[in-house]
Amino acid sequence: MAENTEQFVRYIDDIVWRFGIHVQDNSCCHGMSYADIRALKEISLECDCSMQGIARKLGFTKSGATRVVDRLEKKGLAERRRSETDGRVCCVQPTAKGRDALDEINRNAHARMEEIVAKIDAPMREIILTALGSFLGAAKK
User: Fold this and answer.
1) Which of 19, 34, 54, 91 has a CA between 20 and 30 Å from the CA of residue 61?
2) Whose CA is closest to 77, among 53, 96, 105, 49?
């Protein structure tokens, strides 16, 4: 086992818990799970986001991505349509309600982060950003 593995696990688990959806006022999240929010963020970044693309980006199966999109559609946050470039492909896009929900969730997340970051001096913020970037880069490999 790599040195400090247990401490890494504890820290990451604690970070995820402190920034999880349950921390926010549930009314801000429009009844979405974290997976729903991540999927909505991904589809908002592309104008032609296929179900296969959503699955790949989130690390889900295609059927798992379909279930997430089904939930988003039921809430009026996303909609399916045929690709303009390939009519065989189903694409997903956020609705106006979905874009508004993402804006609200992002504002709340940024406000929470601003409170925390303000308590850390500038040089340490740079160290933390560099370390987090390195950590995420290793996780993606």
Assistant:
1) 19
2) 96
